[in-house]
Amino acid sequence: MKIDLGYIGAIVARNRAKMPSVYEIKNPLAGKQLEVIRNGQAYKLTISDEIKQVQGMMAMTVEEFFQKDINVQNADPSDIFSYRPQDQWLVFSQYLHESKYFDSLSNEEVKKVESILQHITDGMDSLVKNSGINLFAIKKEQPNSYEAHLELASSTAALQHFSDTFLSGDVKTGFDQLIQDYVRHNTKKVMDYQSVEEIFYAARAKINPLNAPLTYQQARHLSMTNKLGKTIYTHEEIESVIKNYQEMFKEIKNEEDLSSVLLKVKEQLLEFVTKGISPKDADYQLAKDFVAQRSNDTFKRIENYWYMLLKEK
What we know:
The protein is mainly alpha-helical. The protein has a domain at 141-311. The chain contains twelve helices and two strands. The chain has helices at residues 10-18, 51-67, 70-73, 89-98, 107-125, 145-166, 169-191, 196-205, 216-230, 235-249, 255-273, 284-311; strands at residues 33-38, 41-46. It has a two-stranded antiparallel sheet with strand order 1-2. Strand 1 and strand 2 form a beta hairpin.
């Protein structure tokens, strides 16, 4: 599959396909002469077939627009998702469009599928900030690293669930290969990823404390975030926790499974993030509450797109 920079969704592509080729469009007035008066003098004008030029310009605009994207200019030809790092759902959508999967679906059904795919990949799309063209992202707040690990595992499992539920034959085989490409692209991103907040806490944890007056709550927060900032995770630990999340998400077969799996995943996440703080430490529960609050929106987002996915069965 080759990325189509002019592709911005199946509905747009469907509408374009209904139009005749720009080379077949004929202006019904072409060749006719009109007489116009300008500055008191009569002129005869011949109407040309300019619609061809206009349509041609429109066809080039979207592709040229995306060619200016810094992500496209720096893309790795061996990594198709590097062309769409902020809208990775478009890669899956383009594949389904070119595979004719959408052909039997109504516009409403296509919109539902694309909305599900968009929500599934949006967590990983949000890791790219202030870089390149972003037309469709939903999530705005930058996630922390432990949320990124969770997003990768959940989105991968959700994409596989979509494939297993709705696709078959060669279309499914190609989609499954795309999922593996998606995993490779995003695994590289999450391995050394840290949010601005995490970078700040890690840097501050290395600085000797200042003799500044702090309230009890401020002192507790500083102590707890310093401990989180000092915690180091190896690539092996990150790979392991992502794999554990994925195995849990694979257990989701229906809506009844969703809540129980998310509870187990949250326990695993809190254990992973607070590994550098002893359960006997006075800051341990504070750290768990802090991380739970920070990741709450991500869990809600994940629950939402899994619910959308399961409801479409």
